[in-house]
Automatic annotation (TrEMBL):
<dbReference type="Pfam" id="PF07813">
    <property type="entry name" value="LTXXQ"/>
</dbReference>
<feature type="signal peptide">
    <location>
        <begin position="1"/>
        <end position="18"/>
    </location>
</feature>
<keyword id="KW-0732">Signal</keyword>
<dbReference type="InterPro" id="IPR012899">
    <property type="entry name" value="LTXXQ"/>
</dbReference>
<dbReference type="GO" id="GO:0042597">
    <property type="term" value="C:periplasmic space"/>
</dbReference>
<protein>
    <recommendedName>
        <fullName>Periplasmic heavy metal sensor</fullName>
    </recommendedName>
</protein>
Length: 175
């Protein structure tokens, strides 16, 4: 009975803090950032591209240690949950710490979006905004964790043009 209760509690914690990812319908399990999709076909100048690349690099560098901290906290949480009598205060502290770290990542992504937005012209901002809000969301499980995934449907041209190698997905073969 205790094992079932602990498993249910752990499941609740891990699914409650699901991460959001984006993938195109043509990429299968390969995850693709929504920002990359939003920036395609905006006719960016070389200066804009350089600035945006620097913004993305800065954001990714700042997120790496936070992701590492999240994984370490999850390991600590798992260890505590496997004890015969887990300490509720410790468990709740780990859950809050994980949540706070995940919030840091989301804030960094929002900040990145705002910085990129400031580099774009007003016409590019309109296109960027429309592309960023396109897509379907669904939950998938990968590696034992549940993720919210945004699926972006592309035209056959977009599927072929993505890598120059990959054929269009089944949905776009007939388009």
């Amino acid at each position: 009975m205790r094992t079932i209760l602990l498993a249910a509690l752990l499941f609740t914690f891990t699914t409650g803090f699901a991460q959001e990812m984006t993938m195109t319908c043509c990429e299968g399990a390969h995850m693709h950032s929504g920002m990359e999709h939003g920036l395609k076909n905006l006719d960016l100048t070389p200066t804009q591209t350089e600035k945006i690349d620097a913004i993305k690099m800065e954001t990714e560098k700042s997120i790496i240690p936070v992701k590492s901290d999240i994984e370490l906290k999850r390991l600590d949480l798992d260890k505590e949950m496997k004890l015969e009598t887990p300490n509720r205060d410790k468990v709740m502290r780990f859950v809050k710490e994980i949540h706070d770290l995940e919030l840091k990542i989301k804030q960094a992504r929002v900040d990145q979006h705002l910085k990129v937005n400031s580099v774009l012209t007003s016409e590019q901002r309109v296109k960027f905004s429309k592309k960023m809000h396109k897509g379907t969301k669904m939950d998938v499980t990968e590696g034992g964790r549940e993720h919210r995934v945004k699926i972006i449907h592309k035209s056959a041209e977009g599927c072929k043009g993505e890598s120059g190698v990959r054929a269009p997905c089944d949905k776009h073969k007939t388009e």
